[in-house]
Amino acid sequence: MTPLKEIRVLEFTLNISGALTGQILASFGAEVTKIERIGTGDDCRSFGPPFVSGASVMYNAYNRGKSSVTLDLKTEEAIEWVHRQLAECDVLIENMRPGNMQELGLGQKELRARYPRLVYCSLSAFGSSGPWAARPGYEEVVQAFSGLFSVNGAENSPTSRVGAQILDMGTGVWAALGCVVALMARNTTGKGAIVTGSLLETGLGWLTLPLGTYSVSKQLPARSRSGGASVAPYRCFAASDGEIVIAAINDRLFIRLCSALGHPEWAVQERFKKARSRASHRLEIHALIEPIVAQQDRAFWLEKLGQAGVPCAPVNNLEDVLSNDHVRQLDLFAGVAGSELRLVTLPISIDNSRGIKLSSAPALGSANQKFGLPVESKTEK
Questions:
Q1: 69 near 13, Cβ under 8 Å?
Q2: Burial letters for 240-264: b for 16+ Cβ neighbours within 10 Å, e otherwise?
Q3: CA distances in angstroms from 175 to 63, 186, 286, listed in the order given
Q4: Which of 4, 199, 211, 354 is the right S-S partner for 28, CB 3.0 to 4.6 Å?
């Protein structure tokens, strides 16, 4: 499926958010050209070990399906080259340091005036307005600022970041959606658009429920390593050989769980009968369930609870995930030639298609000759 095959994209990106935006567009057929620094390229090329094909896993993961050219954007010749490309481009993506594109004469206002059909996608750490707009930032910095730290971690322990790059990746996904919507609107209006996003706005979006709850209750949420305060039982329980998550969050599921555990009488007790009262008595419920689950291994409970229709899953590590038959049958991973690296492709399918098969991430400046630029020296570091 290549609905974007006529779309040309010019990418001024570092690290994850903007790079993922471009890669998503490439997955649906867009021609994406990534501009990198001469000699060193995108900062994240060196974020390792491990390294595959001379670049980090991060670079390999978020720059598939693209061409790479190297430019010194401080030179007049480089800016002239950029303008020649923009005359034929549909989308520009940038997540440079705030103000950097304006300093180069490539800001939103200048380019929208010169190229009215251009979709200009600009991503930042803290958003395009407000006293922190000009500040640089990365995933962990913005997780801290946004409040994500405050809702993660075990009770009575220090706050904690979310382990995956959810702000970078979430921002990249939202930006790709914004670009596609802007391109669709252009079909009607004939005009491009400014698409802006930030790690902070993405983080606040992920916190819709905690922020909404606090706005009403005025009570900061208690941290919990697993589960929460609003539904029960909904958390990890220790089986004899590891942990399993059990999620019986509504009355129907709780009845099924009680029967599977051999205690159908719990479901008719007044304190456990309804979801609201179970939440208030969640510690009591957990104390009843824990010793029963501990008597058997995870396979036993996955089978028994699965047969009862109670949502449950083992707490897997990454080795477990990559060796899991169900995960394998999703056909979600792509390899990189000459290595053991496995990377997730598009996590959605449209008519059984996960987009086109993307080429591996490009070597630094590998498209220079194609675009009439000096060939990148392989000896440069």
A1: no
A2: eeebbbbbbbeeebbbbbbebbeee
A3: 16, 16, 41
A4: 4
Q: Which residue intervals of the chain bear CATH 3.30.1540.10?
A: 234-319
Cα separation, 120 vs 110, whole angstroms: 11
| 380 token code pair | 């440069």
List, for residues 157-199, the tens digit of each pLDDT value. 999 999 999 999 999 999 999 999 999 999 999 999 999 999 9
In the CATH scheme, what architecture does the domain 234-319 have? 2-Layer Sandwich (3.30)
Classify 315 in phi/psi space as left (phi over 0), alpha (psi -120 to 50) or beta.
Answer: beta
Q: Is 123 helix (H, G, I), strand (E, B) or coil?
A: strand
Among 8, 4, 55, residue whose Cα is nearest residue 27: 4
- How far CA 78 is from CA of 56, 74, 86, 143, 245, in Å, comes to 27, 7, 12, 35, 55
What is residue 380's predicted lDDT score, i.e. its pLDDT?
A: 40
Peptide bond into 50 cis (omega under 30): yes
pTM: 0.92
Least Cα distance to 36 among 68, 83, 76 occurs for 68
> Under CATH, what is the fold of the domain 8-206+332-344?
Rossmann fold (3.40.50)
The owner of tokens 């990454």 is 318
List of residues 6+ apart from 145 with CB closer than 8 A: 126, 132, 137, 200, 203
* Location of each CATH 3.40.50.10540 domain in the chain: 8-206+332-344
Rounded CA-CA distance 73/168 in Å is 25
